[in-house]
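Notes from the 1:1 (GR / supervisor)

We went over the backlog. Supervisor wanted to see one worked example end to end before approving the batch request, so GR pasted a single chain during the call. The sequence is below; no edits were made to it. Supervisor asked that the structure be written out right there so they could see what the output format looks like.
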Amino acid sequence: MPRNLDLTALRSFVAVADAGGVTRASGFLNLTQSAVSMQIKRLEEMLGVELLDRSSRKVGLTAAGEQLLGYARRMLVLNDEVLDRLTRDPHEGEIVLGVPHDIVYPVIPQVLQHFARTYPRMKVSLISSFTRVLKAQFARGECDVILTTEEAVEPEGETLAELPLVWVGAPGGVAWKGRPLKLAYEHNCIFRQGVQAALDAAGIRWQMAVESDSTRTIEASVSADLAVHTVLAGSEPPYVERISHGGTLPELQRMKVNLYVADPAHSPAVLEMAALIRRAYAARNGRTAVAAG
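Structure output shown during the call:
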């Protein structure tokens, strides 16, 4: 008699693989750690193989687990598509997602792609703006979910990642060697005052050579070697590169990538959008840790 895989257990397995551990996965799934562990155990017993490598502090996948992961993702996508298309609740409506322009890539496109497969009738309005602007819009109820880049996190938010600011300039450029150091920033950029303070503390003269409300203007100016800029590590835009300054420029502070979700949420899809963003950052944090190791 054919045996059937437990889709709930498969969903827990995928969440553990994406989050890099049972603890994080249980938070994403709104389940207890013991419930998630029990589901994984049942799945292993049914298949007769170990799926998780528990020999180290960070949970990894065994060879069998890696093989199952691709199948599990496809099965869950099909399951969710069937339910969405055939159930009477079409999940229609709109979600407003706000993200600072400098962290749209690389996480948000994959989140939107996954969300569109699960909720094809939901419209997502993506607002790309500055953290200060997004937080004001969120406070007025104009956004359902926002990401921010901040030094700290408000009580209603949660930190998804903590990343250092890095210096960027034109590929092969020399602007970073000049004094006073020429800077390029948007008027509302939350990073600029901290960078200026770091330069002052290091005794490095600087001048604001390029100011604009347009991110494209800043990127074009930096790529033309007219000035330097700072971004969160891993979010360097095209046509610029991280500056290997060898200590000539000061090391910069670390910034938090924070998530804020409307409470109460007007639709379960809002909570799913937040969960997808959490999982995407958890997976990215795991890859970053592996690369650093």
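Supervisor's comment: Residues 288-293 have pLDDT under 50 and may be disordered.
Batch request approved.
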